[in-house]
Amino acid sequence: MLQDKRNLVAGVLRRGLSDVFGLDHDPVVEVPPQRRLGDLASPCALHLARELRQAPRAIAERLLEAVDPPAGFNRITVEGPGYLNFHLDRTGFAAAMIDAVPVARSATVDSRAKVIVEHTNINPNKAAHIGHLRNAVLGDVLARALRRLGQTTEVQNYIDDTGVQVADVVVGFLDLRGCSVADIEALPEPFDYVCWDIYSEVGRWYDGDPQRLELRRRTLHALETGEGRRAEAGRLVARRIVVRHLATMARIDIDYDLLTRESEILRLDFFVAAFEQLKETGAVRFEESGKNAGCWVMPLADSEEFQGLEDPDKVIVRSDGTVTYVGKDIAYQLWKFGLLGRDFEYARFEGALPWETAPSETDAGADDGDRFGEGSRVINVIDARQAYLQRIVRAGLEALGHQDEARDSIHFAYEMVALSAKTAERLGFSGDARLEMSGRKGIGVKADDLLDQLEAKSRDEILERRGDDGNDEAGEDVDLLARQIAVAALRFFMARATTTRVIAFDIDDATSFEGESGPYLQYSIVRARNIRRRLREEGLAQEVPGSRVAGLPAGVWSDDLWDLVLFASQCQEVVERAAATLELSLIARHAVDLAQKFHAIYHRHPILHEQDADLRDARLAVTQVFERSLEALAAILGVPLPERM
RNA sequence: GCGCCCGUAGCUCAGCUGGAUAGAGCGACGGCCUCCGGAGCCGUAGGUCAGGGGUUCGAAUCCCUUCGGGCGCACCA
Description:
By secondary structure, this protein is α/β, with parallel strands linked by helices. Helix content is 52%, strand content 12%.
């Protein structure tokens, strides 16, 4: 909503600057810090003071003479050191906000182009931990934001089912514990928790006798060829773990369009196709001698951005003929853009949603019309520690001559989640600083454990409140509500952190339902809905139409009421900026600031007991605007909004 | 050694392309339920924006530098 007004203001200022000073200047338009100062402001007079050799205020005064308020504005004032401040017609703007869509299709989005978002990507060999949750929540919020803005979006979750991590767990079952494949199959849930322990156990077992690493190598090779007992065990482990990961993510409303399995990349010789291209273009070369003798490497020494590396070459094919992760990822990235020249086969995972890459059974999936891949932009949500590898993948595309696709290969980097010193200590890990999680060492907080804890706490809080008024709800209602509150708490906690900052995960902080939290958002909306419910019970109109708002006298809009309307009108541009910059915390922050403004107004401006009809309707209008705006932001954040708490 | 990220209130963090008195949550202290639910609101205390230079009418914000802390720089992913 506000973006249109910004453009109007910029337009009249640009014309004014041209008419009065003969300047071609693109004026900055911002929202001033206080409502009494106005609603949009430009510091252009300050910016031009030097060039024009005049005092900023004098420039502003002259512009004021030459410029008329654009449509929807009442007046223009000069404030402070020389700001030109534009004051909106509050009644007209508020009436328009009643009927506006808070976050709509973006004019900047090309709906024919598809964006592929890859996220989660957890190695299928152990339970998900809270670090994985950060990845999944960021990826999911990004996908929701893009879709809300009208962007065709495909979410992929990469399953490395042929890697070292799966191999280690297979060794753990077969060699360390002496299990058969049938034994693994018979293990009860939670299977991912069993693997969590085995994985760290195997690490210690290797340390006990380095000879045992030969078992890892043998298993890894079996996983790649897909043949034999070890491969069978690997498939079983990966499949059972993926089922668990999907269940964990489903608890917080995260799902996927496609699971891409590395084993299929191997089976279908994706790398062979990519390798041909790499060889043809000279992007890789065979090393006859030296440190990397017998390997195919991608030379990086000539590249500006890889200066200062210890080794200026990156191994793509090892001397034993196996392919490194980077090699496979280049092939995968090429496929995402439709540049590989071949495609996966598809089937429903476990016979249900989502799709996975798999040998197609008969002609299943041929008639669904779904087409995966062929994105025009690819966003990989991967933690910042892998920035170097992502740059190499991009360099691979460049070397193949795909400059545009290299530019549109975006690494959405975020910092890791570590444990706060206090939380680490509570879990039995000593330390005086924050502690990095490690699946290999078994250090971390499992996602399901955190969710269980959040749900238990939610239930306690609900029952405590229900007990007071004696109105017990049905038990299953409490369960649903407890889940919703837990989801809100977790998702908001992950989404509110800026991507460049390491999260020091503190259990008390993460499970707080006060202040800047998911439940705080929920409570604000519950209050708004309570008001409307009470109005209905009193036989009063629970909604006020835009036409009625348009007739309200200007005096009803006190600065605080008006401030919320103006703030709500910025939802669209906040979401657009968040999607464009990949700084999703902007959305979380806007949501919590909006809720804060509403909570404050709630206490100052009663609706039900207000006798003045104009005042009452103005307040109700603000409540409506608030409700619809927060609903839109919460939907993007994946925060469910209950009717009552 | 090279590269990336961080250093703002006791703690956890916001501060957008430089601009109007440096903000919020938690914690501390003090208030607010005859009035739409106190998972809330209002107020008080608390900051040489790590240090030092520079650019500018103006710097938490941009540049340089120093000092702390984190993470990368594999024939692991």
